[in-house]
Amino acid sequence: MDCSHQCNVRVMSDSDFQNYRNGRSYRAIGGWYDRFPVRITVPSSGRWNTVLDLGGRQANIRAGISYVKQP
I need a labelling partner for 63 at 20 to 30 A (CA). Which of 3, 6, 54, 71 fits? Predict the structure, then answer.
């Protein structure tokens, strides 16, 4: 994943993504990154959601996300 600004990168399941959107507790993989590119490994196969969060700041960001399936 590459991004033009420092940000939180959160990768989460569908149910955790819904909790995140509704302001409830959720579990996510990732964290605050100030250097890119970053690589985040998900713990299992399935559908995953990636959220970029600027920590309350506003900016026009450019980001690129690639998903690589492990053999």
Answer: 71
Phi and psi, residue 8, nearest 5°: -80, 135
What radius of gyration, in Å, describes the C-alpha atoms of the chain?
A: 12
pTM value surpassing 0.85: no
pLDDT tens across the length of the chain (71 residues): 888 988 999 999 999 999 999 999 999 999 999 999 999 988 888 889 999 988 888 889 899 988 777 76
Q: Report the alpha-carbon distance of residue 14 to residue 3 in Å, rounded.
A: 23
For residue 31, what are the domain limits?
2-64
Residue 51 placed within a domain: yes
* Kind and range of the H or E run holding 11: strand 7-12
